[in-house]
Design goal:
By secondary structure, the protein is α+β, with helices and mostly antiparallel strands. Among the domains are: 50 residues; 75 residues, conserved putative lor/sdh protein from methanococcus maripaludis s2 fold (Beta Barrel); 181 residues, no CATH class. 30% of the residues lie in helices and 30% in strands. The protein has seven helices and 20 strands. The strands form five sheets. The protein has a six-stranded antiparallel beta barrel with strand order 2-12-15-14-13-16. A four-stranded antiparallel beta sheet has the order 3-11-8-5, with no helix packed on it. A three-stranded antiparallel beta sheet has the order 4-6-7, covered by helices on one side. The longest helix is centred in the first third of the chain and has 47 residues. The N and C termini lie far apart (93 Å).
Length: 444
């Protein structure tokens, strides 16, 4: 009997324990549900308690560019100078320097004399550092104003680099870095040539010449490389032996596929000065053309009247902030698979930062300057006809007028009248968010 009584008592205790657990779980569930409901109510209350206020702005002039997608590829216009044997390449001229036919450009040193090469390079860096100090860049307190244009560009680049953000979005820092690289190249070519009267610099130059004579005694056979033609020297050499001259892009049956293949980042030019060179590899290239040639590949335009042709000018946009202005089309090829335009480029950019082809470029077709408003401020905009409406302020009240979109870049639209007279003028007030106010409403 005692055993039965004890069993009943244990059963009752288990029931009470289970009931308490269920009550706790139910209470927790109710608490969670109430918390979620309160959070949702709070968010809705915060978002809905204030209606969006009507915002006004003045109509102002703006330049808007109409662009179209395209692919671009740099056409090889240089002569490749091979290495006679394996070794270490020692440049005797700067990157991008123009040379005459027969000028010494580089030496190929035997691989076991790497220490000689290091000493020569350190001597060259010491000379350049001393030249920079002498040109005033090292002491901007005494030389407040820049001495040359390249000095001015260099100082501006240093300031931009020092003020660029290094946390978060690094686009500004990357642009400043590219600006600095271009400025230092221009600075080295211009400003560093006029500092030969300093005694300390003369001693550094004398030591550098002594080390160069020591290197000349240990070159490989045929290791003195001269310029076969006059032109601009580059040690940023292609990593692929494939020839991609103009005939390549004229004869290819599938240019888009070639662009995709050549856009591999691994095909960016390599610096032959940074690693030991192999026999029969490219030591440097030399070009006697002052302009680059780029092939622009776009989808086929069957309209003969509107499509681009020889003699037209276009702008090209690619990368983060690269821009090639007024590229002249000197040859145009039309085909169903794609249209190809061969353009001359006078702007100098850092091609070494890019592979041979860039698939996601933009081509500026039209540039229009006029009265502009944000595209989202237009009402009933029809892209095919350019017709739209704008809510402006006339006599203190809202009035909807019909306008014609002359050009748009996806963010802003240049507008004008549908007829001869324009319904808008510069400094007119318009409603930025027209969905917040009706017609004929008095604006305080």
């Amino acid at each position: 009997m005692n055993t039965t009584k004890q069993s009943d008592q244990l059963g009752e205790q288990r029931k009470k324990h289970r009931f308490k657990n269920r009550a706790k779980l139910l209470a927790m569930a109710v608490l969670v549900a109430v918390t979620v409901a309160f959070a949702i109510w709070s968010v809705v209350y915060i978002l809905a308690r204030h209606e969006e206020k009507t915002r006004l702005a003045f109509i102002t002039p703006r330049t808007v560019e109409t662009t179209a997608p395209c692919s671009i590829a740099l056409i090889n216009q240089y002569e490749e100078i091979p290495t006679p044997a394996a070794g270490i390449l020692v440049p005797l001229v700067e990157e991008g320097e123009r040379v005459a036919k027969g000028d010494r450009v580089a030496l190929i040193i035997r691989p076991d004399y790497e220490e000689y090469v290091k000493e020569y390079r350190l001597a060259g860096e010491a000379c350049d550092a001393r030249k920079m100090v002498l040109t005033g860049l090292g002491n901007t307190v005494e030389d407040v104003l820049p001495k040359t244009r390249s000095d001015s560009l260099m100082r501006e680049a240093v300031v931009s680099l020092s003020q660029a953000k290094t946390i978060g979005d690094l686009a500004e820092f990357q642009r400043a870095g590219k600006q600095f690289i271009r400025a230092i190249a221009q600075y080295r070519n211009d400003a560093l040539k006029n500092t030969e009267d300093d005694p300390e610099l003369k001693e550094l130059v004398r030591e550098q010449k002594r080390l160069l004579e020591r290197l000349e005694a240990v070159v490989v056979e045929g290791g003195v490389l001269n310029a076969p033609v006059p032109g601009t020297v580059s040690f940023l050499v292609p990593v692929s032996a494939e020839k991609r001259d103009e005939s390549f892009w004229v004869n290819t049956d599938n240019p888009e596929a070639d662009v995709k293949r050549l856009s591999d980042p691994g095909l960016r030019p390599a610096d032959s000065r940074q690693v030991p060179v192999k026999a029969d590899s490219i030591a440097f290239t030399i070009s006697n053309s002052s302009m680059s040639t780029v092939v622009v590949i776009t989808s086929h335009d069957p309209d003969e009247e509107s499509r681009l042709s020889k003699g037209n000018y276009i702008d090209l946009l690619f990368g983060e902030d690269e821009r090639l202005n007024r590229c002249r089309i000197r040859r145009a090829l039309y085909a169903e698979e794609a249209d190809r335009f061969f353009v001359t480029v006078s702007d100098q950019i850092g091609w070494s930062n890019y592979p041979p082809a860039i698939p996601d470029a933009q081509m500026v077709l039209k540039r229009v300057t006029g009265l502009a408003v944000p595209l989202r401020s237009l009402i009933d905009y029809r892209e095919e006809t350019g017709a739209a409406k704008l809510k402006k302020i006339t006599g203190g009240v809202t009035e909807t007028v019909s306008v014609q979109v002359l050009a748009s870049d996806g963010a802003y639209a240049v507008i004008g009248g549908i007829g001869e007279e324009s319904p808008v003028e510069e400094a007119d007030l318009y409603v930025v968010n027209p969905w917040t106010v009706g017609e004929g409403v008095l604006i305080d």
